[in-house]
Amino acid sequence: MSKIDLAFDSKHIWHPYTSMSEPLPCYPVKSANGVKLQLEDGQELIDGMSSWWAVLHGYNHPVMNEAIKAQLEQVSHVMFGGITHQPAVDLAQKLIDIMPSNLECVFLADSGSVAVEVALKMAFQYWHAKGEFRHRVLSLSHAYHGDTFGAMAVCDPANSMHSLYGDYLPNHLFADTFTVGFDEAWHDSAADNLRELFKTHHQELFAVIAEPIVQGAGGMRFYHPNYLKVLRELCDETGVLLILDEIATGFGRTGKFLACEHAGIEPDILCLGKALTGGYLTLSATLTTRHVAETISNGEAKCFMHGPTFMGNPLACAAANASLSLLDNGQWQENVHRIEAQLKRELLAPLKKNPHIQDVRVLGAIGVVELKQSVNQAHIQEYFVENGVWIRPFNKLVYIMPPFVTSKEELSQLTGTLVKLLQRDDFSKFVL
Ligand SMILES: *Cc1c(COP(=O)(O)O)cnc(C)c1O
């Protein structure tokens, strides 16, 4: 049996956020089943990452596999210009049914970053069609919205190194870091900064963009639902469009189907990605209201100016339809609540007083341990793999967000391995 050539890989293939001159080790995965990744040498790892928020039902799921195979034999791809197909129509129908009721126009693209680009362009074109050239967006500190230039420009300036790109990035506005966590006591002055920014700048703004409740790759932070409510109110008062990026939070991860349900609000534009296909194929959707869509379409351009080659890919749509049908019975909710309770028992309680940690927090199927120091990526990864789990920290954050079908025992192995690491006498080996 052929071996994956790791030397070739490290010499020639970029991995996410890595160096070509000093690449970090990569582990060769041969197959994956349920919540387990099989390495080439036969070792099994319990997946604590859901392949970055994407995998919900586990790997190699028979219903998912069947749906994709069936579509493969019909048509795997066809251009979307002037052509449509059943998987796309079914998916749009399903999304319109289950997403906030004001959203009824769907744009299907191929990744989360592109969904964000599309959302920003929709909002920009909306104002342009109304005869106004508005050039700025209000975003949040610690935001993450993707890696393409438009998306990067609304990411936290420090995390995404805006200074590196200089004048090449548009100069958007960023709200101060929020001060009230998800389950802390709300006080109205916590939104004063937002009100100030709106007062001074609302006429420049074509949109506000936010990850609702959970900020992901920009720091795994959970904020208070009222903060989001205030954003909605400020947008309503001024006509600025509210874009919610639910690419990470959508499809149940935070305990609600969409994270914006925690605040009981609806966006003008919604971005979905990651778990949209249950983690099987790359696909994103940007949804908006009839009002926004018609305003754009009646503007000077007469159309929305975007159209990716693989738009509405039938295989990806078939995967999304299968994933949504698996979510239909509502079982996910029980699973996420079970995982949340277990993460609270097995992470929050034992780690509260641990000297190495800054904070530990849990929401839905997300458990975050924020360390005082950044991890030594190579060492800590090796420790996890030796202990049969796949947990991939970044900077000071070690977090667990398992597929919803993870069993009690499997989750205990993930939390137990993490807690044991933090209790080791030689813990300093694993941080920088
Ligand atoms: C991952 C992510 C994106 C980018 O999605 P890609 O598919 O990686 O381009 C955008 N926004 C949020 C909140 C994300 O978590």
TrEMBL record:
Subcellular location: Cytoplasm
Pathway: Cofactor biosynthesis; biotin biosynthesis; 7,8-diaminononanoate from 8-amino-7-oxononanoate (SAM route): step 1/1
CDD domains given in the database record: OAT_like (cd00610)
Names of required cofactors: pyridoxal 5'-phosphate
Main location: cytoplasm
Chain positions recorded as pyridoxal 5'-phosphate binding sites: 112-113, 245, 308-309
SUPFAM superfamilies per UniProt: PLP-dependent transferases (SSF53383)
Modified residues (N6-(pyridoxal phosphate)lysine): 274
Domain of life: Bacteria
Gene3D superfamilies (UniProt xref): Aspartate Aminotransferase, domain 1, Type I PLP-dependent aspartate aminotransferase-like (Major domain)
InterPro entries: Aminotrans_3 (IPR005814), Aminotrans_3_PPA_site (IPR049704), BioA (IPR005815), PyrdxlP-dep_Trfase (IPR015424), PyrdxlP-dep_Trfase_major (IPR015421), PyrdxlP-dep_Trfase_small (IPR015422)
Site residues, Participates in the substrate recognition with KAPA and in a stacking interaction with the adenine ring of SAM: 17
Family membership noted in the UniProt record: Belongs to the class-III pyridoxal-phosphate-dependent aminotransferase family. BioA subfamily.
Function: Catalyzes the transfer of the alpha-amino group from S-adenosyl-L-methionine (SAM) to 7-keto-8-aminopelargonic acid (KAPA) to form 7,8-diaminopelargonic acid (DAPA). It is the only aminotransferase known to utilize SAM as an amino donor.
Assembly with partners or alone: Homodimer.
Protein name, per record: Adenosylmethionine-8-amino-7-oxononanoate aminotransferase
Organism: Ignatzschineria rhizosphaerae
Gene from which the chain derives: bioA
